[in-house]
Amino acid sequence: MGKRMLTVTCAVAVAAFAVGLSQVVGAASEQKLPSKSDASCLKCHEYDKQDNILAGKLKSVSKKVKTIGLQVGKDLEMVRYDEATKLENAPAFPKIPIDESVRIVYYTKDGKKFAKAVVVKKGIEVPKDKLISAEEVAKLVAQGPEKGKYVLLDSRPGTNYDEGYIPTAETMPFFMFDKLKDKLLPKDKSVLQIYYCGGFT
User: Fold this and answer.
1) Cα separation, 36 vs 83, whole angstroms
2) What would the pLDDT profile of 14-41 be if each residue is shown by its tens digit?
3) Residue 92, Cα to own-chain centre: how many angstroms?
4) Which domains are assigned to the chain?
């Protein structure tokens, strides 16, 4: 009876420790931490309005100690990664090209930064039949949306739109797409949808 009681007590203690540990890890990953972003990233993204993000240029990856060196403005941020870190748009951490733009979702533990997710900027290849020239857009804008049968959507952050935009364009920041699609996208699928930003969108 005593042995069985000891086993049950140990099992309960282990379960309690596991629950406590998961709460600590969960709390560490859910805490709201300030974001820090290179000025070049803020031209297209509003990372400064989000939490837990570091964005800049990759400077180093150490496979041995599992750290990433990220240049953010004049500062070099060192962030640790492990098997639980999610990596997007690269086959492995050591294979991320140096000076590539990288976004890290991070949390802190014992005063150190840890990567929850690392997203490498993915180059965009747009099929030629999906591109439209500036001249063609200018002709449509001269006709207006109804006559030209188009909708022109500015995918840059709202602050850039406020500074100036192509006539007849509606603001639709890419990170707001899901929230604005029902309001801004035409029900008539024959209407041409044109998107633009500071580069390819």
Assistant:
1) 24
2) 344 344 434 444 444 468 999 998 887 8
3) 18
4) 36-120 (2.40.50.320), 128-196 (no CATH)
